[in-house]
Specification:
It is built from 10 helices and 7 strands. The chain is of the alpha/beta class and 208 residues long. The strands form 2 sheets. Strands 5-4-1-6-7 form a 5-stranded parallel sheet, with helices on both faces. Strands 2-3 form a two-stranded antiparallel ribbon. Helix 9 links the parallel strand 6 and strand 7.
């Protein structure tokens, strides 16, 4: 029986009208392969909570780059940018309110890092039981301990949690691998495309 539903934050709760180009820009500055930059960025910034300068030092050291000042300047400017093109899907809020009335715990989960910390709407937070961010938890979404951490906080078993998100790998395949249930929403490859479709899929799990 499902007792809690975990919603991804970026591109699920908050929808953005523009794609992020941070990693591409970093790759160009560092003149390194995109996959190498992406992997290192995730390990440093998505997994660690700390001072921006300290994390930038670790990032440059790991990549053996001497462009510390340039990278730090890039990150400082990035962290100051407001997410003007993001908005909360009001239909998602209605769905969450409905779930709360049914006695379902609602949590938010995100692999966003300290440079992209969504300022969550107070109107949304009053319906949310917990917010989990990878850099605060200390584990990434492809690590089993991330899921065990959340289960312990919620005092629930794996099979009692349903994950909803837009990433085929991190919001569907990984949760299922570690025992959770999962639904894809707003994913380019497959899954639910509208909140109405999502609501119907969630109902199926609640009836089991």
């Amino acid at each position: 029986m499902i007792k809690a539903i975990s919603f991804d934050i970026g591109n699920t709760i908050y929808l953005a009208s523009q794609n992020q180009t941070v990693l591409n820009e970093l790759g160009q500055i560092l003149n390194l392969p995109l996959e190498q930059v992406k992997r290192t960025f995730r390990q440093i910034f998505n997994k660690n909570n700390g001072d921006l300068r300290e994390l930038t030092e670790k990032f440059c050291k790991e990549l053996k780059s001497n462009k510390f000042n340039e990278i730090l300047f890039f990150f400082e400017n990035l962290s100051k940018k407001s997410e003007k093109n993001q908005y909360v899907d009001k239909n998602i809020i209605k769905l969450i309110k409905k779930l709360k009335k049914l006695g379902i715990k609602v949590v938010l989960s995100s692999s966003s890092n300290i440079l992209k910390n969504y300022q969550l709407d107070e109107g949304l937070l009053k319906y949310v039981d917990h917010v989990f961010r990878t850099y605060e938890v200390g584990y990434l979404k492809d690590e089993e301990n991330y899921y065990r951490f959340i289960e312990k906080k919620l005092n629930l078993k794996s099979e009692e949690i349903l994950n909803v998100g837009n990433s085929l790998k991190y919001d569907y395949e990984m949760p299922k691998k570690f025992g959770w249930n999962a639904i894809l929403f707003n994913c380019p490859e497959k899954g639910c495309k509208t909140v109405e479709e999502l609501s119907k899929e969630i109902e199926k799990f609640l009836l089991i």
